[in-house]
């Protein structure tokens, strides 16, 4: 336990171009807001910040749900919050599994004592709603849980049909929006999603530390009708509701400065406008894909199922995953992600999220990757920058 | 869900003198460190920050425990982490209850399925170790859980005798250090504490958002010998250990900027030195008490059982709690805390924690309180500032 204080230098991370699976780069305004003086968690000023943050979150989730708050943990805490509040021991839960985060959902269902109904899909493909329909035939699950944007593979899961099947079965629909919220249409109310969660450090471009969550009136009813206490006090939405709602009942000390940061990041989202923001994410994604394919590389996910926010690129045969990522980081300051689980060594995960989704980053990455692959003796076709430029010229 | 962006102004909390039950005021260096560029949660630079933060936390906890990390939630998440990892359904847990946070422990024990053995004490007094001994006679609890610094009452619980009784019973000892860590001796290793948790926003003077935790080798052994999965994936210490340890296995996206802030706040603690820091907290507390008593007001807790970090002052008969606190906040920018639970309206909770524990704050508070009480027609004796000054003169 003895230390020498001289071993600890000033913090100095250097500048990174954050194009991994999150965090994304944080705008200066968000950092400035986060640096405002800390006040108490029941200070009248902070209470107004809480109310405004809730309004801005409703705007982003495209919902009127009163119970829309940031939970004081990261995106994984958001996932856990939804399951621990909405599932009681013995209740059936349908989980769509086509990646790391769907798999994690099954782990959480087991821990909360739910009965799992698996709908397995291929990693890198969306799940077929017909498979969902077959899986629930003759059963009455409490909850359907699907990942909208599977960060581990770059797959976008269409939700409309699944929402219909869930509601026909009398079940609630829970959706993971960690890598979609703020970067693409989520339509909580229009699709009929009962519980949604996300993280702050992806398409919202706020530092990690909070998990935005929204519960529909039906989800709140399920919460209020529980027979057993919620296993987690920290994540108990009925207690969190009393702190974030008009009662202002002490539950825990909210991460004040993180909430300042989130509010500012959401203000930036609202200033840009949702449609404009989604169009920007889509355009930069298209340009990246055009460049990658022009280079002779291939995307992992077939075209109609790709996320605009997380681009999974197949690593060409014989190319060393780590060697390329290290060179990107050390020579270009660019972070991209490796794969999780069985896909390790097979794909790179390139995020274009929030503030990081910009034309400059698309070109910095394409040129950096091309240069590194060439210097490592990998055959690459010319023309990536031309192809990406053409996408912007057409827009 | 429609909003008008013009309704949301720049963040501007104003300056507060934070003398409530936390958060305390945050030094500028901590804010600066928190504002450094965000990097990825597996970035080599961040991994070195994680290692350094762990070393600094071990120094602060006064322990060699390898498993010493900040959990990605606030102090309440720290409490839950300890119980959910160390208690399995049906196991007996001794809880000392003499305030709000001891009471909260009983709620968590119930949620994790533990069998509660209560040791009730008076709110405002330490718990008698003999009552603990009697409560566990003939039983073999898995865990003893006590609050070192009861934030709701200002009581300091001596731990040496309780540690002996716990270990004689073959149980682990868990201690809540939310309002003591960084402000007074905690001696995790010297006392023989098996699990300890705290928050960052009190005597460490970092913004809220992380919960420092330390597990002894015996606690780790209990974790490794579990028969049931830990009910929480987010707070599962065996998974967190794989991320914070040499494996660096992805578990969740750590709150990067909060960890920067914590590391800097701990560096400041180490530069000051533990003994010097504890002496400072003690001195400012003594001066505050001298001033309060000179004014004719009374402390809630008898002298030998008082915390130096959280000072509970009895509200004189006929004085309006809220009116005084509002005047302190609006006219002096001073935040102090009201009471929790049954003590509501009976005490003020005045924190002198971390950066907020300074001579200036003692005098600002004493003069502000005296002025407000006088202007509200309350009879107050003269001489508070003289009495407080005498304490500093003697030191």
Subunit organisation of the chains: homodimer
Mean pLDDT of chain A: 97
How many strands of chain A?
13
Percent helix among the residues of chain A? 40-55%
SSE arrangement of chain A, N to C: EHHEHEHEHEEEHEHEEHHHHEHEEHH
Cα(first) to Cα(last) distance of chain A is 59 Å
Question: Which overall shape of chain A is indicated by the principal axes computed on the Cα atoms?
Answer: globular
Question: Low-confidence parts of chain A, pLDDT < 50 over ≥5 residues?
Answer: none
Largest interface: A-B, 90 and 90 residues
What is the CATH fold-level name of the largest domain in chain A? Aspartate Aminotransferase, domain 2
Task: Give the total of domains of chain A.
Answer: 2
* Main sheet strand line-up of chain A: 2-10-9-8-5-3-4
CATH architecture of the largest domain in chain A: 3-Layer(aba) Sandwich
How many distinct helices of chain A? 14
Task: Give a description of the structure.
Chain A is of the alpha/beta class. Chain A is 42% helix and 13% strand. In chain A, the strands form four sheets. In chain A, strands 2-10-9-8-5-3-4 form a seven-stranded mixed beta sheet, with helices on both faces. In chain A, helix 11 runs antiparallel to helix 14 (384-394). The radius of gyration of chain A is 22 Å and the shape is globular. Chains A and B meet through helix 1, helix 2, helix 3, helix 4 and helix 10 of A and helix 1, helix 2, helix 3, helix 4 and helix 10 of B.
